[in-house]
Write a structure and sequence with these properties.
With 224 residues, this protein is of the alpha/beta class. The chain is built from eight helices and nine strands. The relative contact order is 0.16.
Amino acid sequence: MLHDVARQHLPVVFGVDRAGLVGEDGDTHQGIYDIAFLRTIPDIVICQPKDSPEAQDLLYSAFCNEDPCFIRYPRGSALHQRKEKLEKIETGTWTSFDEGKPEQIVITYGPEVDRVREKARINGMGLRVVNARFFKPVDRTMLREIFAAGLPVTVFETDVSQGGLSSAIRDELAGQDGPVPAFHVIGLPDAFIPHGSVRTLRREEGISLEDLFDWLESRRGAQS
């Protein structure tokens, strides 16, 4: 990847299978470290779609560009309908969705985007959910908008935090003028994760949706 593709800046598209926790595949197959080590390679793109339509657009976009690109996708299946017209996504751009009147902001990626949105609706919680579909490069414009909103920010990542999305955000913020804004991180520790079902491991490691919303509810109470 480093010498044969990135150093020569060849337009190769990599599919990164089994991204995130993989459960019964075993502890040797946990796909939670790739963001961290890929981010050290210059001039590449790392991304992950939130669903099938976005996956089709990201794949199309990757082949339209000349940058080496890594597209992550988790183990399992997803609802799929072939798009009649593919859309080119600008590299490094995020999207956001408001559920009710936002009281807090959650930055996440992959299938967690829609899961967080749905749970916010069920819980009647005002939330802005950011789809951080690019890990490298990150969306500098949206990051400025996020922290200018003055709302509590939580980064919810289902991979190791060290070198992951929260690290990418800190690195970007550190390069801007002024102090680095504070935000909370929910993610996996700098450790090897054992074998187990995805649901069990997420609860044990504190990265389940319940853990996220317990934290959000505690912040909600602290604000009122």
